[in-house]
Amino acid sequence: MMVLVHGGVPGVTPYASGPHIWGPVLEKLGKVVAIEVIGNTVDAMTQSVRTAIEGKGKCHLVGHDLGGLLALNVAIESPQLVSAVTAVASAAAAPTGDGLPDTTFAHPPKPLWSRESQRWALERVSYSHHHIDDALLDACVAAAAKQQLVQPDEFVPSLMKAKSRFYEVCRTDGIQVPCQVIWGSDDPLSSFDHGLWLFRGIAQKQRATQFHVINRAGALPFREQPEAFRHVVCAFGEGLS
After folding, report:
1. Which 3 state secondary structure label does DSSP give 106?
2. How far apart are CA 28 and CA 36, in angstroms?
3. Which domains does the chain have, with CATH numbers?
4. Averaged over 47-57, what is the pLDDT?
5. Is 61 exposed, middle or buried (0-12, 13-18, 19+ CB in 10 A)?
6. Which helix (H) or strand (E) covers residue 122, if one does?
7. Do 87 and 72 form a contact (C-beta atoms < 8 A)?
8. In terms of DSSP bridges, do strands 59-64 and 179-184 run parallel, antiparallel, or are they unpaired?
9. Whole-angstrom distance, CA of residue 43 vs CA of residue 52
10. pTM given for the model
11. Across all residues in the chain, what is the average pLDDT?
12. Which of 23, 38, 116, 120 has fewest C-beta within 10 Å?
């Protein structure tokens, strides 16, 4: 089973994420489940993903941004639950660099998480705006109305701790399941080099690791190029079966 793990942190990310963020690619991927991530820290969010997949057999976890780091965490802690991991535009898992997200999301329009504020944020992370339609904005506004805000002073230290632990595992025991890294060619949140170094970190000890770049896409390649995304993800899964 393929399980999609969305990115976005309530109270930190200036758009309200959730299972809705995957959009049309849900239908293209066939038998797939998009889960809701909950928790105030990375460890708590990782536990929510693990709880969601327990009892479903081995799952191919496809995680976007923070969801990519959560999927990798689950693979480290409970490899018996995971057949493979695909980390998509995972700025959260990539080596910490120059803080590009701070520049990209600087000075968002207020009120935060309003329809226009979220449109602004989604446009900022995209190569083009054609995928930002009323259905997406309606879903983001609905998600914003019910989101439980995470406190940055609690979340950020947990993120740094999780990243440090992840790269220690990459250098020592390695990730015990096949992994794939997918990046958008024009991602404003994290550069191509960040994605490449994430791949290299995993590939140190896991030979079954791939790196793919999707052209004409930003931080949401599954929305901007859903057919190309489907092809890459499904080909990886089929190659492991």
Report:
1. coil
2. 20
3. 2-240 (3.40.50.1820)
4. 96
5. buried
6. helix 115-124
7. yes
8. unpaired
9. 14
10. 0.96
11. 94
12. 116
